[in-house]
Amino acid sequence: MRHSLLLLIPLLLTLWAHAKASSAEPSWPSAASADTVLVRPVDVAIAPNPYRPAEATAGFRLRVRSAVAPLTVLYADIYDLHGQRIRRLQADELGLRPIPPGGQATSSSWWDLRTEGGREVPTGTYWVRFVAEASRYGRLEGRRVERLLKFVVIR
């Protein structure tokens, strides 16, 4: 038994050294590359989720927040569970104004639950990809920012 405990000591020392090294202060890069964005300039939320059109009194709400940069929402693509785009909503259809830094924009009826062909979507899981553009913020200027959200519609 004593011999087996002696064999564990190098393993324990290695684990201790690894834990100590990983808890050390992280080293930050001195300069980020031109393609690196170190902040999340946009937060998107959909409520209620799941959405039940028959029960919703406040509508199908959409909120977009900007953390640091002025943002302009360009469009939103909606995909079904198979990954096929069923609708593209342009900025004017979304009803969202440009968003100032630290501000937010909301819409209570951003999608009519219809496909490009005008058919109502059935109960199911959907994905929406929001695409916005940052403006007047140094290295973020002119960059596209995308967020992907999953939501459920129950009819």
Descriptive report:
With 155 residues, this protein is of the alpha+beta class. Helix content is 16%, strand content 34%. It is built from two helices and seven strands. The chain has helices spanning 2-22, 91-94, and strands spanning 42-47, 61-66, 71-79, 85-90, 104-107, 124-134, 144-153. The strands form two sheets. The protein has a four-stranded antiparallel sheet. A three-stranded antiparallel sheet has the order 1-2-5, with no helix packed on it. Strand 3 (71-79) and strand 4 (85-90) form a beta hairpin. The longest helix is centred in the N-terminal third of the chain and has 21 residues, at 2-22. The protein is globular, with a radius of gyration of 23 Å. The chain starts with a helix and ends with a strand. The relative contact order is 0.20. Residues 18-38 have low confidence and may be disordered.
What attributes characterize this protein structure?
155 residues, alpha+beta, four-stranded antiparallel β-sheet, three-stranded antiparallel β-sheet, 2 helices
Number of helices: 2
Return the structural class: alpha+beta
Low-pLDDT stretches are: 18-38
Strand order of the largest sheet: 4-3-6-7
Average pLDDT level: 78
How far apart are the termini?
66 Å
Write the layout of secondary structure elements.
Blueprint: H1 2-22, E1 42-47, E2 61-66, E3 71-79, E4 85-90, H2 91-94, E5 104-107, E6 124-134, E7 144-153
Antiparallel strand pairs: 1-2, 2-5, 3-4, 3-6, 6-7
